[in-house]
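can u pls check wat happens w/ UFG
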Amino acid sequence: MQKAKILVTGGAGYIGSHASLVLLEAGYEVVVLDNLTNASQEALQRVEQIAGSSVTFIQGDIRDRACLDLLFSDHDIHAVIHFAGLKAVSESVTQPLSYYDTNVCGSLTLCRAMQAAGVCRLVFSSSATVYGPDAPVPYHESMPRGRTANPYGTSKSMVEQALEDLSQSDERWSVVLLRYFNPIGAHPSGLMGEDPQGVPNNLMPYIAQVAVGRREELTVFGNDYATADGTCVRDYLHVMDLSEGHAKALGRLSTPGLHIYNLGAGKGVSVLQMVEAFARISERPVPYHFAPRRDGDLAAFWADSQKAEQELGWQARRGLDEMIADTWRWQCRNPQGYSTDIHTKSQRTSKC
Ligand code: NAD
Ligand code: UFG
């Protein structure tokens, strides 16, 4: 039987590369479209090394309609998992037009190209940030989207709304919105992981770089929140669990309409708890100092993921210690991320 072909936009990035691996291992063919603005093609070579099968890589931009049209005419795509986008919250405040252009215009261009090609099955990377600051915890999918705190969050909310309207306007469409909480961790092989460019914005890669000696100390933003130890609480989930959630979501695309799922572990962990656990597992000190709160941070939120459990048969299975151990293995074995191999070129690459 012919394998179903999945287009993974942003498939060279952190979550997209792990999801591509899970898809290959589940028996799908994978076509990755990525412009490599925040990724290295080396990540895909590691995917192929682990999976023992190949990925078709196309270096191109989701805003490039001609590139998309060519891709859909060259490949019989069954469904699209759409990860491509910009994700740095603070950068979105200083460069809002880039964020709206890539995240919103790019997603709309992709949908137009899909519709023209008759490919109307889409899984979209959304975020817990769409619930906004006033939602009570745990967040549940039945809650409305709230006001957003920055252009990044607004761009996710706008795309969600567009996809909701699209799925109502045309019954051929089936769309799954996956609202991620805080993905961390790495593939257990130590071959793949998160490789942020420049200074990490997110907690986990920052802590890992402190522990490995690449940065001096962690800045903890705020110790006066109304939480048990005064630091912010988040719902961290393993990137492999998250990736498996995407494979399950593909099954939901056989039912037309809009389907929304939280993907989180359902447990809150504070910044200081994370620091303590990382130091314990890595057996390295993680020095830190407190600084004022970071703009836009909420005190605490976590997921109610029962809907994903009931309808997708998905649950976060890996615990915090495993998330940290896998991150640490990746960090130790690749202290500079993928960068040493950044100029490697695959023979299978085509360019739009
Ligand atoms: P990432 O930056 O590692 O991956 C995004 C990928 O998209 C990169 O490989 C980048 O090169 C590519 N890309 C960017 N602009 C593109 C364009 N115009 N055309 C083609 N490719 C382009 O980020 P990630 O952490 O893997 O996140 C993947 C998705 O999940 C994003 O949409 C992000 O907003 C969303 N998300 C991430 C988190 C998180 O904490 N990592 C949380 C919630 C939602
Ligand atoms: N933090 C620090 N120091 C740092 C980095 C982070 O103290 O150097 C704190 C933050 O203040 C926050 C917590 O660690 O309290 C988690 O911060 P992250 O930046 O790792 O994650 P966020 O919860 O801010 O945001 C992440 C993604 C967003 C996504 C959101 C959804 O970056 O894209 O999760 O849950 F929208």
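The pocket of nicotinamide-adenine-dinucleotide (ligand 1) is lined by residues 9-10, 12-16, 34-39, 61-63, 83-87, 102, 106, 125, 127, 180, 182-183 (CB under 6 Å).
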